[in-house]
Amino acid sequence: MTGMTPAAAEPAAAALTRPSAAEQSGRTTVLRRLMSNPAALVGLTITAVFVVVAVAAPLLAPYSPTFIDLANIRPGYIPGPSAHHLLGLDDLGRDELSRLIYGARSSLLIGVVSVSLGATAGLTLGTLAGGLPGIVDSVIMRLMDVMLAIPGLLFAIGVAALLGPSLKSVMIAIGVVNIPIYTRLLRGSMQTERNKEYVTAARSVGLAQARIVAVHVLPNSLSPVVVQVALSLATAIIDAAGLAFLGLGSANPAVPEWGRMLAETQTYLQADPLLAFLPGIAIVITALGFNLFGEALREALDPKLR
Questions:
Q1: Which residues pair with 95 in a beta bridge?
Q2: Structural domains in the chain?
Q3: What is the pLDDT of residues 26-65, one digit of tens each?
């Protein structure tokens, strides 16, 4: 291969990274292991239900989340579950079930957008750090070390407080917290891939470093990122609830958010604890679903854990 030009050697180098029959069989094995894992199925089911509820909220909710049932409220009394309101009403006479369903929509929106922002910025920096060892790698990783030195939720609170209460601020705050996670993860994965035989072969035939990174190293380094996305969604939902609980969520108090619903029940927790348990249970179950699926996916993709 030493006598080949880079243009002529490209097909040979590509063949080294093209999925072989054994690799394709391995992917089938990963899928089979994932589908045979009870934890993965439970997590996938919870996640699917959460997404369906969030997307179809206008069809599933019996009432508008801002509708106030004036006929069933009076001062000092919080109506419990009934035939018309299966989970009861809150202190303002709004249907609790409807607000829980619409709260799932807010959580899904925050989770998807914030993780997308964090992953995009983190993967960009991780690609630069992993593909350009030396001064670029050192500068980026020292910056990530500074960001990681601050506890994640505290960092998110600071960013959200700086930007002001709004859903956009929450998304940006959680996204910023995720940047160093993806940067370090992709950079480490790329460093591992750079030491493999197909990269050495690509270098030996004179392929450009940028092409090796973009075409060969980067695509083979993304498996851990897929796992991290599922785990980050769980963390994002919890962080979003925490920020809303502290009053850093949407500036509109009528927007249903699980964290805000938890905060609003503090004044009448003893009178009707169910209203506090319901959003708390929703947060826990949803985060559990993403965590179960993410951990099962990690086990299926990591040959050391099989």
A1: 89
A2: 52-62+88-305 (1.10.3720.10)
A3: 567 767 877 888 888 999 999 999 999 999 999 999 999 8
